């Protein structure tokens, strides 16, 4: 499959990328790792006239502790998240979730910002950032704005990001030694989740249980009220609207959500 012809630009700074985005408007799109964009272009579901490559901008690649948060540049690759000593110590859930994304080739190209911007409800990292209570920092013609992950996703492949904006940074709280767990149910190794469940510090997030990553709010409330893991996990699918597809029916996904939540909470409690 060959994409529609496009012009390619590789600015050497973030400001240059933002200027090109402003110049070309909705005719342009940015390329980070290309592991979601290029398949979409090859299927001709997207046909941008201009592709702006931000994948090599050093300004967007860092992982730093800032106060009670860790700040991660949007261009940081999954492999860097997975192998970061800072994240292993401060936000171990995020590093562990990055380790489950695709295969080594995907993790060496794909970026955290790209995964969040693409907003595939079957992706692991958007749900992890939601579970952590993270913040997404957007920069565009009007300057910078910070969007809580709870407000970022609006639907399948859809977010509050405006066309002229870039995700520049993702901030997640330092959870340190708080118990965490990630359970990902796949049919084949290296696959997307049929359902995934992330948990840290009493919060629980769901992968592929609706149009966006979700928090299992009934489970979280039950845990806060002192319910057992068994009883809290039984509520994990409440309020969700998972899809039925070739991989699983909606009812099977609800079953998986309950089972995986119990396993993730049990792992978290034992850490
Ligand atoms: C074989 C394969 C297996 C995979 N398996 C998994 C998996 O198991 N779990 C999983 O979660 N993901 C999986 N992925 C997806 C992978 O994680 C992608 O890398 C990721 O979803 C997109 O990141 P990217 O950097 O490649 O973004 P790109 O493909 O470059 O871009 C994706 C979209 O985000 C936009 N974008 C990128 N960066 C920014 C930014 N900074 N600001 C604003 N918009 C931006 C682009 O314009 C585009 O619309 C897989 C992909 C492949 C090809």
Automatic annotation (TrEMBL):
<dbReference type="InterPro" id="IPR036318">
    <property type="entry name" value="FAD-bd_PCMH-like_sf"/>
</dbReference>
<dbReference type="Pfam" id="PF00941">
    <property type="entry name" value="FAD_binding_5"/>
</dbReference>
<keyword id="KW-0274">FAD</keyword>
<dbReference type="InterPro" id="IPR002346">
    <property type="entry name" value="Mopterin_DH_FAD-bd"/>
</dbReference>
<dbReference type="InterPro" id="IPR016166">
    <property type="entry name" value="FAD-bd_PCMH"/>
</dbReference>
<dbReference type="InterPro" id="IPR016169">
    <property type="entry name" value="FAD-bd_PCMH_sub2"/>
</dbReference>
<keyword id="KW-0285">Flavoprotein</keyword>
<dbReference type="InterPro" id="IPR005107">
    <property type="entry name" value="CO_DH_flav_C"/>
</dbReference>
<feature type="domain" description="FAD-binding PCMH-type">
    <location>
        <begin position="1"/>
        <end position="177"/>
    </location>
</feature>
<dbReference type="Pfam" id="PF03450">
    <property type="entry name" value="CO_deh_flav_C"/>
</dbReference>
<dbReference type="InterPro" id="IPR036683">
    <property type="entry name" value="CO_DH_flav_C_dom_sf"/>
</dbReference>
<dbReference type="InterPro" id="IPR016167">
    <property type="entry name" value="FAD-bd_PCMH_sub1"/>
</dbReference>
<protein>
    <submittedName>
        <fullName>Xanthine dehydrogenase family protein subunit M</fullName>
    </submittedName>
</protein>
<dbReference type="InterPro" id="IPR051312">
    <property type="entry name" value="Diverse_Substr_Oxidored"/>
</dbReference>
<keyword id="KW-0560">Oxidoreductase</keyword>
């Amino acid at each position: 499959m060959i994409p529609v012809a496009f012009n390619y630009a590789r600015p050497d700074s973030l400001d240059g990328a933002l200027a090109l985005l402003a110049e070309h408007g909705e005719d342009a799109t940015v390329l980070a790792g290309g592991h979601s964009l290029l398949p979409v272009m090859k299927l001709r579901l997207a046909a941008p006239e201009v592709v702006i490559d931000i994948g090599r901008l050093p300004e967007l690649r860092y992982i730093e502790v800032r106060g009670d948060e860790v700040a991660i540049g949007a261009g940081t690759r999954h492999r860097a998240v997975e192998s970061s000593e800072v994240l292993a110590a401060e936000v171990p859930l995020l590093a562990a979730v990055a380790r489950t994304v695709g295969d080594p080739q995907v993790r060496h190209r794909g970026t955290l910002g790209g995964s969040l911007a693409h907003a595939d409800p079957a992706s692991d990292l958007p749900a992890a950032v939601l579970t952590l209570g993270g913040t997404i920092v957007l920069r565009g013609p009007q300057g910078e704005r910070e969007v809580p992950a709870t407000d970022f996703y609006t639907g399948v492949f859809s977010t509050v990001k405006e066309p002229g904006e870039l995700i520049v940074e993702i901030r997640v709280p330092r959870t340190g030694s708080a118990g965490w767990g990630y359970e990902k149910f796949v049919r084949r190794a290296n696959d997307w989740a049929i359902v995934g469940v992330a948990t840290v510090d009493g919060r629980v997030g769901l992968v592929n249980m609706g149009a966006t990553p979700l928090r299992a709010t009934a489970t979280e409330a039950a845990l806060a009220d002192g319910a057992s893991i068994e009883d809290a996990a039984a509520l994990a699918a409440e309020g969700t609207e998972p899809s039925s597809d070739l991989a699983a029916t909606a009812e099977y996904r609800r079953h998986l959500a309950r089972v995986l939540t119990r396993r993730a909470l049990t792992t978290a409690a034992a850490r």
